[in-house]
Amino acid sequence: MQGKVCLVTGANRGIGRATAEALARQGATVLLVCRERATGEAAKQEIARTTGNANLELFVADFAVQAEVRRVAEEIRAKYSRLDVLVSNAGVMLLHRVTTVDNIEATFAVNHLASFILINELGDLLKASAPARVVIVASEAHTRVSDPEDWDSTKTYNGRAAYNRSKLANVVFTYDLAHRLEGSGVTVNCCHPGWVNTNILHSMYDRWWLRWVWPIVQKYFTVSPEEGAKIVVHLATSHDVDGVTGKYFNQMRATTSSLISHDPVIGARLWNLSLRFTGELPPVTITGEHIAGH
């Protein structure tokens, strides 16, 4: 990966941190996008120390704020003339419904819309660097979705259900984006990294009637962030996936995602809704399709 520029979101801990470190160890220039400067700087210094690679740069943005996602994309475009790999990893799982400054449910905003904005904002840079790769960290949780088009969780709110829907959005977005970038030299794939011992998984068990289960789950059913990052790094670097695009990977191989993730109507609606929620479309209307009021 010498001479390659790789961007990793949520790079200060968990899968993102492990991915950034692995890419740095292979000699890449790594751009770490983190929500907080202090934790980002600490991660940057530790990665530089453990890998011996000082070609690291920190960018700070709160992915719950669309203006900050656009700002960080602009900063990256201004500083770098190429981008070989973009790893979209940053994510949250919230027990209670929270709306962002953009008046959007925060799990959907951070886990999907921020990725949607960032990748589209950096699309020309990726194309100019082709062959380039986009890797989206999704989850097997996308297979457990009810009410799949209540993306903004306006009907009822359950933290795990909202998270599952956001992971479905990751997979659907992967397929749609791969189709739109066909022939550009930019590949787009997503993956389930396994049940990784991260704050997100821990938060799913952070209820009084489940807390006793967490030590058991942690010991017997989870893998380390380093283990979870292996598939992400594989998709970002391996020649085995040269030219492979529009796939969902689980356990280091392309596999079939949920039936609903392949629904073209849901895919088209999600793309249009994403454009609308990010201010790229008016509240109603596109390609003859009516989008219900927000």
Q: Ranges with pLDDT <50 over ≥5 residues?
A: 288-294
Largest sheet: 8 strands, mixed
- H and E order: EHEHEHEHHEHEHHHEEH
Strand order of the largest sheet: 3-2-1-4-5-6-7-8
- At CATH level 2, the architecture is 3-Layer(aba) Sandwich
* CATH domain class name: Alpha Beta
Q: What's the average pLDDT?
A: 88
How far apart the termini lie comes to 44 Å
DSSP helix fraction? 40-55%
| Share in β-strands | 5-15%
Question: Would you kindly provide a written description of the structure presented here, covering whatever features stand out?
Answer:
With 294 residues, the chain is an alpha/beta fold. It has one domain (5-193, 225-255): 3-Layer(aba) Sandwich (Rossmann fold). It contains 10 helices and 8 strands. Strand 2, helix 2 (37-51) and strand 3 (56-60) form a beta-alpha-beta unit. Mean pLDDT is 88; it is low at 288-294.
Task: Put the structure in a nutshell.
The protein has an eight-stranded mixed β-sheet with strand order 3-2-1-4-5-6-7-8, with helices on both faces. With 294 residues, the chain is an alpha/beta fold. The C terminus is likely disordered.
Q: What's the layout of helices and strands?
A:
Layout: E1 5-9, H1 14-25, E2 29-34, H2 37-51, E3 56-60, H3 66-79, E4 85-88, H4 106-121, H5 123-128, E5 132-137, H6 159-180, E6 186-192, H7 199-204, H8 214-220, H9 225-237, E7 247-250, E8 253-255, H10 264-277
Parallel strand pairs: 1-2, 1-4, 2-3, 4-5, 5-6, 6-7
Antiparallel strand pairs: 7-8
Helix pairs in contact: 1-2, 1-9, 3-4, 4-6, 6-10
